[in-house]
TrEMBL record:
Coiled coil: none
PANTHER family: MAJOR FACILITATOR SUPERFAMILY (PTHR23501), TRANSPORT PROTEIN (PTHR23501:SF5)
Chain segments annotated as transmembrane: 35-58, 79-98, 147-167, 179-198, 210-234, 272-292
Membrane topology, record value: Multi-pass membrane protein
Subcellular location: Cell membrane
SUPFAM superfamilies recorded: MFS general substrate transporter
A GO cellular component entry from the record: plasma membrane
Residue stretches making up the Major facilitator superfamily (MFS) profile domain: 1-296
Lineage: Bacteria, Bacillati, Actinomycetota, Actinomycetes, Glycomycetales
Organism: Stackebrandtia nassauensis (strain DSM 44728 / CIP 108903 / NRRL B-16338 / NBRC 102104 / LLR-40K-21)
Protein name (record): Major facilitator transporter
Length: 312
């Protein structure tokens, strides 16, 4: 199964790299934001279908039916298990010396690329960490089953589907940087309030916060991609797309690890959930600051209108 997941991840990385490049090349520059918005609206449709089915499958068939082992690691023996993180140091050092690593690091020095990459990492980390913790909160403190937890999580991708096209329109007509800032600020309000997880909350208390996360993701994702692609040198658009995919995958790896570590440090209690949410909110504020400080990219020239023939 591990080998199959490695192959799946490799082809998934290729797909994520190619999507922004193909979408950018398929439309005029002035429509790039809308193209990104629709592209990132389609993906969450799979999340909606999958999330609805997962809870029912777990309750009626068992966890093995879905083969998605997104469970926290057992953290026995106080904090000695944190030493496992040291195993990541050699691969990171080796990656820095590889051509792909040097490319990503060089792109971080390109004006207009560093801020979207940083913001994307913080946004994905925050969204996935919340999605990771919420089902445990629902089952432990709201005494709900897996099916209900899956249905509540549907609110997040539904918000992404509904607001991604709007995010694309705002990107083209209001500006990519402004739209990205708005898209990152909206979910920060939700995660900031989640830092006060309470045992008396209801499903509705969670649902509207998850809805804000989805709305923000819908506004943000296409805008930050368009912002980075607009800042990319003409001969490096594919490399910038790959770097954005790297930032996204880094967030996918950071989220469950960070949430599990912070949650486990307090014995997997409610205080640990609150601590994890507070930390990811702080990360999101860092991404928002990066966008706020980002150098504004000059607007792309409009396409010239075809010359009209003179009247005879």
């Amino acid at each position: 199964m591990i080998a199959a997941r490695v192959v799946q991840g490799g082809f998934g990385a290729l797909l994520f790299v190619l999507m922004p490049v193909l979408a950018s090349a398929a439309v005029r520059p002035q429509l790039r934001g809308r193209a990104m918005g629709w592209m990132f609206a389609i993906g969450p449709l799979g999340a909606i279908a999958g999330t609805a089915a997962v809870g029912v499958m777990i309750d009626n068939i068992g966890w093995s039916s879905i083969f998605l082992p997104h469970l926290p690691l057992a953290a026995e023996g106080r904090y000695a298990w944190l030493a496992v993180a040291l195993l990541a140091i050699p691969p990171v050092l080796a990656w820095r010396r590889m051509e792909s690593g040097r490319l990503v690091l060089s792109l971080l020095r390109v004006p207009g690329v560093r801020a979207p990459m940083t913001a994307l990492w913080t946004q994905v980390t925050g969204q996935l960490a919340v999605s990771f913790l919420v089902p445990f909160y629902i089952q432990r403190y709201l005494d709900a089953d897996s099916a209900l937890a899956g249905l509540v999580l549907l609110v997040l991708p539904a918000g992404m589907v509904l607001f991604s096209p709007l995010g694309g329109w705002l990107t083209d007509n209001w500006g990519a940087r402004r739209t990205a800032i708005l898209g990152l600020a909206v979910p920060l309000a939700a995660t900031g309030s989640m830092a006060w997880f309470g045992e008396t909350w209801t499903i509705a208390d969670l649902a509207w916060r998850l809805g804000l996360l989805g709305v923000g993701a819908g506004l943000f994702t296409g805008a930050q991609t368009a912002m980075a692609m607009a800042a990319a040198p003409a001969d490096m658009m594919g490399s910038v797309s790959a770097a954005l995919s790297f930032a996204r995958q880094l967030g996918l790896g950071t989220a469950p690890a960070l949430a599990t570590i912070l949650w486990g440090l307090t014995g997997y209690g409610l205080a640990g959930m609150r601590l994890a949410i507070a930390v990811i909110t702080a990360l999101g504020l860092g991404g928002l600051y990066a966008l706020w400080r980002a150098r504004t990219v000059a607007p792309l020239p409009t396409a010239p209108e075809p010359a009209r023939g003179r009247a005879a």
